[in-house]
Amino acid sequence: MKFIVDNWMLFLIALSSGGMLAWPLLRGAGGGSLTVQGAVQLINRERAVVVDLREPAEFAAGHMTGAKNVPLDQLQDRLAAVVKNKTVPLLLVCATGSRAQRAVATAKKLGYEQAQAIGGGLKSWKEANLPVEKA
């Protein structure tokens, strides 16, 4: 016990560094987002629908092949009209993944139980050299 009292600062440093190492695990390794490879599998095997949450100008500059554009601020109102089948996997994507993470809760609230965000967004899609088309 004397050792712990005498070296309290070392223990504090060890606890804080351990906490920082464990943080991604506690957060769910990327916030529960889907990898690019997992997204490709869902698109090919289960006919997943990709919804791009970026603004129309961003979408026109380049988007995933076959993606439908529904800006995040219009998701609540337009998602049901764009994606009618609520049983297919719904993949949400934006530029970096942050908007898509927020949109997953909205989509699930609307009844899309298989809604997932693509981790890293379009940036990680491009880094994986996967197809992008322009409008």
Helices and strands in order:
Elements: H1 2-6, H2 8-27, H3 36-46, E1 49-52, H4 56-61, E2 63-64, E3 68-69, H5 75-82, E4 90-93, H6 98-109, E5 115-117, H7 121-127, E6 132-133
How would you describe what is shown here?
The structure is a single chain. With 135 residues, the chain is an alpha/beta fold. Helix content is 51%, strand content 13%. The protein has 7 helices and 6 strands; from the N terminus they run H-H-H-E-H-E-E-H-E-H-E-H-E. It has helices spanning 2-6, 8-27, 36-46, 56-61, 75-82, 98-109, 121-127; strands spanning 49-52, 63-64, 68-69, 90-93, 115-117, 132-133. A 4-stranded parallel sheet has the order 3-1-4-5, covered by helices on one side. It has a two-stranded antiparallel sheet with strand order 2-6. Strand 4, helix 6 and strand 5 (115-117) form a beta-alpha-beta unit. The chain is elongated. The model has no long low-confidence stretch (mean pLDDT 90).
Distance between the termini: 68 Å
Residue runs with pLDDT of under 50 for 5 or more positions: none
Q: Helical proportion?
A: 40-55%
Shape: elongated
Order of helices and strands: HHHEHEEHEHEHE
How many DSSP helices?
Answer: 7
Mean of the pLDDT scores?
90
| Strand tally | 6
Q: Please give the radius of gyration in angstroms.
A: 20 Å
Q: What structural class is derived from the secondary structure elements?
A: alpha/beta
The portion of residues forming beta strands comes to: 5-15%
**Biggest pleated sheet:** 4 strands, parallel
Strand order of the largest sheet: 3-1-4-5
